[in-house]
């Protein structure tokens, strides 16, 4: 599969509908100077699958996520999105990123634009959508995340939970095939976490392919199709969430869960 | 003795004015009433009174020299004759500053973008340019550029030569301001823009620059004030802006008054400009 995908850079793929994994990570290494952040990740994510990634801080979860849309460049190994190798020089990364939405821990909303401005900018500038169409589309999405009435508000006038939902809407406005969530509730006040998680649950129900780095174990259990535990740059455990929770195989997974579960 | 008697009045008046102003201000602050401006005016008057005392002292001690000084610096005959000519020359000064600033902003922004580019050649070229220019006195650059241009066979008018030298110099300074502004924008902004599929230049143009430019308006305005003052250096390549005209007038009439006129025109622009800068800084500081 990997061989055909590597050759099928664009044209071959469009002729026969692609039916492999949505994301395929092969032997992914990432070094920051002397530090090995990722030491060989292999992972496939199938369409409509919700993969939850957990692990101690510094285990490489965010780095892996950022490699999936090319915000970090792999030191070695490949990342395929719908069969196209995004680490290949000839691949247009800007085009690939349109398929991969990303939501950040710190929201990163554009503070000089209103909510609707945040949501419509990329469709207009990248997809060439006209203003009216983008506006209608954008308002629809804001409505979907429960912020139809906040379209004209600036980010500074929104709560953290609202800002994060605008950020989700902004990513959705590009009609991505995959959504990446990088600890999106970690910077939120506890009472605002639920509204963001509910929005994500809604997306999962609609069949969106999602990779979710999070510390929310409840979300992992309820929404995740798969749970991945990472430690020191490697995938240590990969299985059904309930299975991994109740019966972790690896000692480091056991230790991690015993630590956080004793908190709950 | 007469002087002392005259002095006692402003001393009493001045001190009283300051005391009253303070009281008024406190009262306004505590009871939220209007009238802050009046209180400030009282305070200012008090300060002026004290300055008058200083002047009285000067008059007392320098009675002989004073008349001469006055004749030389504030000769109304001379002023009346030169004032319109200075006013006209000052318009040239302003035109020089504004036209230069236009090119400085464009060139400065390009330099800043080169300075932070991922391409080493760009980064290196911009860094060398900025270092060399910032390491040289402006007056030296003006001479080198003026004579250099004529050797290149470019017969620029003095005005154009002035614009070119001011642009070459100030662009280096403003590039550093732009760069600081761009680098002060959290890198998450660029990442969010890129993650949506925007190119580097699109992200710069629609996300980073609008925020960065807003942030550097106060320091850029400050640069503009300095630029306006530094236009006087262009006089040395014979451009008849306000300083050059004032200097010639001084030579012709053997009198310093025209230079006081020049000073008047500069302050007319620079003081309000500095107030505006301060206002902008204050507003930004409030966290807009």
Please give a structural write-up:
- The complex is a heterodimer of chains A (264) and B (288).
- Chain A has 264 residues and is an alpha/beta fold.
- In chain A, 39% of the residues lie in helices and 23% in strands.
- Chain A has 11 helices and 10 strands.
- In chain A, helix 7 (160-172) packs parallel to helix 8.
- Chain B has 288 residues and is an all-alpha fold.
- Chain B folds into 2 domains: 2-61; 76-286, MetI-like fold.
- Chain B has 11 helices and no strands.
- In chain B, 28% of the residues are buried.
- Chain A binds chain B through residues 69, 71, 94-95, 97-98, 100-102, 104, 106, 108-112, 121-122, 125-126, 167, 170-171, 174, and chain B through 186, 188-189, 191-199, 202, 206-207, 210-211, 214.
Helix and strand layout, with pairings?
The complex is a heterodimer of chains A (264) and B (288).
Chain A lengths: L1 H6 L3 H5 L7 E10 L2 E11 L4 E5 L6 H8 L7 E6 L2 E2 L7 H5 L2 E4 L11 H11 L5 H14 L15 H13 L5 E5 L7 H16 L3 E5 L3 H7 L2 E6 L2 E6 L1 H6 L4 H13 L1
Parallel strand pairs in A: 3-8, 3-9, 6-7, 7-8
Antiparallel strand pairs in A: 1-2, 1-4, 4-5, 9-10
Chain B lengths: L1 H30 L4 H26 L1 H11 L2 H40 L4 H15 L3 H14 L6 H26 L3 H9 L4 H31 L11 H12 L3 H29 L3
- Number of helices, where a helix is a run of at least 4 consecutive DSSP H or I residues of chain A: 11
Structurally, the number of domains of chain B stands at: 2
Strand order of the largest sheet of chain A: 6-7-8-3-9-10
Mean pLDDT of chain B: 85
CATH architecture of the largest domain in chain B: Orthogonal Bundle
* Radius of gyration of chain A (Å): 19 Å
Beta-strand fraction estimate of chain A? 15-25%
